[in-house]
Structure formats: structure tokens, C-alpha cells
Amino acid sequence: MASVSAPAADYAALALDIKRWARELGFADCGIAGTDLGEDEAHLKRWLDDGHHGEMDYMARHGDKRSRPAELEPGTLRVISVRMDYIPPGTSNAWNVLRDPDAGYVARYALGRDYHKLMRNRLQKLAERIHGAIGDFGYRAFVDSAPVLEKALARNAGLGWIGKHTVLINRSAGSYFFLGELYTNLPLPVDAPAGAHCGSCRRCIDICPTQAIVAPYKLDARRCISYLTIELRGSIPEELREPMGNRIFGCDDCQLICPWNKFAQDATEPDFAPRHQLDGAKLVELFGWSEQEFLQRTEGMAIRRTGYEGWLRNIAVALGNAPGSVQVREALLARADHPSEIVREHVAWALARHPKTR
């Protein structure tokens, strides 16, 4: 990044403008942080040493670049952090979907358009507004697309604190939001980090279906349903299948139970609205999708990340946990000879839980 220079007073005014422009572009909030993440780096290294990242090798692949912004993008002095609320009004009640064992639960963030490109485009527009005000400056935009400790940076930028479930919580808006960053060489004034307000509450720890939150602020991803249904490419450990219930893509339980989400704000972005009634669609119907239908109906959505094989694997587990019925058994039998060994294994497990009745 090329260096820039301007009077300190100008940077203070620019910081206020940046926050205003961010809100005008649809971001719910914006803050500015420095690049010191020493304590978070130590926490990350302990987490990796414990093997809690599972098969997410990319978490360790880039060395210290994840916790040292200036090594990832040389010249970085500040990080402009933004957040965007993602649950639109009218979305089916999450608890009601979880209580319906015949329905498939999809994490609320994944019901509509994939947020990555949308937010990155908005960050690019924010950078263009800054350029229009001051001329050339160094920057790089990130939206969950590179080794970035986005929650720690957002905390330092005053956007919220990291809760005991390791999710960022905003005092005025709960935790249902996406994060994005602009790394920049502008020496902007930084915001005060957000203080923690979890207190003695441990509801997120107690409700986790697979007990993945092994201690406050410590998540074993290998037990997390979000990891199992999205990141894991192989077989889901048998002891974790029944606790998964009807969750077929991600899991929100630790957020749903969090008292701070009574302050959650509705999304203003219409593209986040649920597609194909995925905020409560029936498992048998979803299991019947062909690969072509899966690819067509999930185009531009985060659900694509699990792949068709993972999609069928996850739904097979949910069908194994569903009440027995002719429809459930027939749906499973239709996939019993699927070309994928992973799918066949999980279908066989589900069928064993639904023995044929007279």
C-alpha cells in the first residue's frame, strides 16, 4: 500500500464520513480498529494446537497472517469493520421449524442470497467514496474470503463483544449479522473496543445439541453442527447424528437462546429473503431434489458450499431422526443405492432407525 498523508483533524472528519457512507450503503454499523491482535493470536494458536479446527486446514495454512493484518496486506494501519443484519421480516419462526421433525432446518443466514459478493461490492463502493474524498489510498476488502480474524477486529472496532459461544454480539442488535472489512493504510482514529456483557449466563453452552462449546469462549468445531453439515466432507460421527435432529445446514441454537437477540434487527436487504421456502421446507421434498435441481435452486446461495453429496448426507440424518412413516422410508429407500458411498452409509443408518412395519 502506498503511503498517504493528511492533517490529523482531516482523518477524524474522514472517519465520521466513512461511518455515514457505510450506513448509506446499507451496512448497519461501522467502526475502526488498529491491527494489534496479540491476545487473539495466542487464543487461535491454542485452539489449533488442541485440534479443534477439525478438517479446516485453512485455519492454520497462512501462519500468523490471520492475526497480523499488516503481514497479510503490507502497509495496513487500520481496519474498517462493518456489519449487516441478515434476518428479513416474515421469515418463519426458527423454534417452530426446529420443533417440526418433518421439516429441514437451515441456518437463518443461509436462507437467501450468499452474502459474500453482496457485501464485498458494498465495501468496494465504500472504498470508492473514500477515494472520491481524498484521492488514492491503499485498501483491500474482505468478506470471509481470506485469513482474517474478523470477530476480533469487529470487537476492537466497537461493533460488539465475542460471546461464550464465540459469536460476536452487539448490545443493540444481537448477533444475527454478517461482518466485512476494509484493510487500509489510512491512519484513522480508532474506536474503543466493545466491553463484554455475557456475565454469568451460559445458556448457549447448555443448549448446544452436541455440546460443542466445551468451555466458555472455546468451541470444538469437530462437534459443531455447522461444521458437521458444511465443512466436513466425510462421514458424520454416529454419536453426533441423533443430536443433529432436523438441522440440515448449519445450526443457530446458541444464538436463538441468547438473551441479547431480543434486540436483533430486521435485515433491510431484500436479497436475504428466504428462497424456495427453505425456512421450513419438508425433508422428504428436499431429499427428492436431483443434483440439477439442487444446483439450480441453490444458485447464488451459501448452501452450495455443502455440495449435493453433503446435502443428501445431511438430510438422510435428519430423516433418520424424523418420525417413522411410509413417506420417510420410501424416500430413504429411493436413495439406498446412491452412487455416493457417503450417501449410502447415512441412508442405511437412517433406514435402520425406521424398520419396516406391517
TrEMBL record:
An annotated GO cellular component: cytoplasm
Subunit description: Monomer.
Protein name: Epoxyqueuosine reductase
Record: residues binding [4Fe-4S] cluster 1: 198, 201, 204, 258
MF-aspect GO terms: 4 iron, 4 sulfur cluster binding; cobalamin binding; epoxyqueuosine reductase activity; metal ion binding
UniProt-annotated binding residues for [4Fe-4S] cluster 2: 208, 224, 251, 254
Gene: queG
Active site (UniProt): 144
Keyword Nucleotidyltransferase part of the UniProt annotation: no
Record family assignment: Belongs to the QueG family.
Catalysed reactions listed for this entry: epoxyqueuosine(34) in tRNA + AH2 = queuosine(34) in tRNA + A + H2O
